[in-house]
Design a protein that fits this description.
Blueprint: H1 10-19, H2 27-52, H3 71-86, E1 89-94, E2 101-102, E3 113-121, E4 132-140, H4 151-154, E5 163-169, E6 173-178, E7 184-189, E8 194-199, E9 210-212, H5 223-233, E10 244-245, H6 251-261, E11 263-267, H7 280-293, E12 296-299, E13 319-323, H8 324-336
Parallel strand pairs: 1-3, 9-10, 9-11
Antiparallel strand pairs: 1-2, 3-4, 4-5, 5-6, 6-7, 7-8, 11-13, 12-13
Bound molecules: 2,5-anhydro-1,6-di-O-phosphono-D-mannitol and magnesium ion (MG).
Length: about 350
């Protein structure tokens, strides 16, 4: 008789975790399931994008006569619809929307959670069939569930996160998330449409050797970052360096590879953009949460990312994340430059 290994599905896994919290009411479980459902719908659309020609073509009509949407708009609407319908989330901050979207529906308006998300990060890569992702963060709303939700409910430091994760639409589709008790990765089996636990308890590996940065901006980087990049490229008599350079230009994909293979992701401020490009609330904080949960570190060069309270929804931050020792080394170079 062939004995098969028992598959743990994402739904089973989330339920098992819920039972570890005696007072849990299942709201977070339902919310995470809503995110997974939306991810599958977005995944289907991304996979079909080349066939139905909806890459970047807002306004045209598909064969059913429906108006086609750009994939990032589609992803945004899909996640909002799933979260609103689920009733556990009362408001969303999204890269696609200038202001917080608060729900007025009978159930959703009393939801205990708020979500910040980048529905389709790295979307400039879509046309070239390069991996893209969704990033999500879940906070407990600050005010009473009967009070109107405000921007303050969502402008919370990353250390207050209840859960965070990403979906990577790559050679396979994965959902990776944490509720503060380690990081777990689930691969979508497209034949049955189920996320299955494939990467339990993800941790940065030892002996990391990758650095990821857009070196096209090199001349505009702070001196400390330039020196660190040179350090990465130098021979180390004891071995280990030079490191190898890998950069996709898609945060989720770059971080995911670095998490699995061991590497640092670098997006500094420049002279023209002192705060860099990446957004604190829905790009840096959730990825920093995962990095710390995977035994790594995330910093803006001086401060722990998870300690920074965003002042505005779309605030940017320099971002350095990866294995602890790599980020620490980069911080030393930055301090020497002061
Ligand atoms: P986006 O939110 O507009 O897609 O931009 C964010 C993306 C990240 O995924 C990626 O790390 C970064 O932009 C790449 O920027 P650059 O092209 O400057 O290297
Ligand atoms: Mg983005």
């Amino acid at each position: 008789m062939v004995t098969r290994k028992k598959i743990t599905t994402l739904t089973e896994f989330i339920m098992q975790r819920q039972y570890e919290y005696p007072h849990a009411r299942g709201s977070l479980t339902r919310l995470l399931n809503d995110i997974a459902t939306a991810a599958k719908i977005v995944n289907r659309e991304i996979n079909a994008a080349g066939l139905v020609d909806i890459l970047g073509s807002t306004g045209s009509e598909n064969v059913q006569g429906e108006t086609q949407k750009k994939l990032d708009v589609f992803a945004n609407e899909t996640f909002i619809t799933a979260l609103r319908g689920g009733g556990e989330c009362c408001a969303i901050a999204s890269e696609e929307n200038e202001k917080v979207i608060s729900f007025r529906d009978q159930y959703a308006e009393h939801g205990r959670y708020v979500v910040a998300m980048d529905p389709l990060d790295g979307s400039s890569n879509i046309e070239s069939n390069v991996s893209i992702g969704t990033i999500f963060s879940v906070y407990r709303r600050l005010g009473d569930t009967n009070d109107p939700v405000t921007e303050m409910d969502i402008l919370q430091a990353g250390k207050e996160l209840v859960a965070a994760g990403y979906v990577i639409y790559g050679s396979s589709t994965m959902l990776v998330y944490s509720t503060g008790r380690g990081v777990n990765g689930f691969t979508l089996d497209p034949s049955v449409g189920i996320f299955c636990l494939s990467h339990p308890n993800m941790q940065f590996p030892g002996n990391p050797r990758i650095y990821s940065v857009n070196e096209g901006n090199y001349v505009h980087f702070p001196q400390g970052v330039k020196s660190y990049i040179k350090y990465c490229q130098e021979d180390d008599p004891e071995g280990g360096r030079p490191y190898t350079s890998r950069y996709i230009g898609s945060l989720v994909a770059d971080f995911h590879r670095n998490l699995i293979k061991g590497g640092i992701f670098i997006y500094p401020g420049t002279e023209r953009m002192p705060q860099g490009k990446l957004r604190l609330l829905y790009e840096c904080s959730p990825v920093a949460f995962l990095a710390e949960q995977a035994g790594g570190k995330a910093s803006d060069g001086e401060r722990r990312i998870l300690d920074i309270i965003p002042q505005t929804l779309h605030q940017r931050s320099p971002f350095f994340t990866g294995p602890h020792e790599m980020v620490e080394k980069l911080e030393l170079f930055l301090q020497e430059d002061l």
